[in-house]
Design goal:
The chain is α/β, with parallel strands linked by helices and about 300 residues long. It contains 14 helices and twelve strands.
């Protein structure tokens, strides 16, 4: 359930530009859904995205959160917060039961009818843009900090994350033949996907000096993991997330899928998996995710 939510969260536009020339009154914010939200009270926040939860905690304001969706698995201090379900199947009732003064989510929260129900009950709902590149992480942090009235703390955190990313990027070797890396998400017979353009995995793979084999094969968003597509992608490395790999039967189960065993990655046992919240969350821990990928792509360097 967690990874299914993160898979949807990972897919979005590639632009991080959320600027607007609209002049808004103090305390008002223009959401990615075009709705202007007036925020007057942040004492009881329900957060619909794990990455936003992480940022709020990192800003030192975790005590303002009274509820989260299932994509919140970090930090440990968030473990005991009430869960309102999965944001892609949002229901108004569990949110309203927590008596929130503000609800924050991204533009992939569905259905819109549930969002409207919450708004009709008098609760402000701010929908943020889904970010899928490194510049967008800074934008996200600054937006969250602005919403919560701590812009200076937000700038400090954004600057720190930028510096952490730059430090990891500086360790990436300049390979004459960059590795072709394919992110796959296989969870049973019904859900078998590869990722391409418009996904956070593209930024991580390219940041690590690799070629995103899904994007290179013409995939935008996600595509079915078929023998034809995966063989055409010809990945040197296959990456995925821990819970999906466990469900499919580990590396051997993944290699047994049609076409996967024919790839250089499978033949050379270059299959790596990561914590889904870390790798797909794209929050203030992005440098940690990038460093893990760099270590796997260039062992011994």
């Amino acid at each position: 359930m967690l990874t299914l939510a993160l898979v949807a969260a990972a897919c979005g536009g590639e632009s991080a530009d959320t600027t607007t020339t609209t002049t808004l009154p103090e305390g008002a914010f223009l959401g990615a859904d075009g709705v202007v939200t007036q925020i007057e009270d942040t004492s009881r926040i329900v957060v619909l995205n794990g990455d936003i939860t992480e940022i709020i905690f990192e800003l030192g304001l975790g005590d303002l959160i009274v509820g989260v969706d299932v994509t919140t698995t970090y930090p440990p201090g968030a473990d005991d917060l009430p869960r309102i379900g999965v944001r892609q199947r949002l229901a108004a009732e569990p949110v309203l039961q927590l008596d929130p003064t503000l609800v924050i989510g991204d533009e992939l929260v569905f259905p819109p009818e549930a969002i409207q129900q919450i708004r009709d009950a008098g609760v402000p709902v701010l929908i943020m843009k889904t970010q899928t590149n490194f510049d967008g992480i800074r934008t996200k942090i600054l937006e969250v900090a602005g919403i919560l009235g701590v812009p200076a703390e937000g700038k400090a955190l954004a600057d720190r994350v930028d510096a952490e990313l730059e430090a990891v990027l500086a360790t990436v070797p300049d390979e004459e033949t960059p590795p072709r890396v394919l992110f796959v998400y296989a969870r049973g017979a019904e859900t078998r996907l590869i990722f391409g353009r418009g996904m956070v995995t593209k930024a991580l793979i390219e940041g690590a000096g690799g070629i995103d084999a899904g994007s290179d094969a013409g995939v935008f968003g996600t595509d079915d993991l078929t023998p034809e597509v995966v063989v055409a992608a010809a990945p040197d490395v296959l990456i995925t997330v821990d819970d999906a790999l466990a469900v499919i039967g580990g590396p051997e189960g993944l290699k047994a899928l049609p076409g996967v065993g024919e790839t250089p990655a499978a033949q050379n046992d270059r299959i790596y998996s990561y914590d889904p919240a870390l790798f797909l969350g794209f929050s203030n821990r992005a440098a940690e995710a990038l460093a893990a990928l760099v270590d796997d792509l260039y062992p011994g360097q």
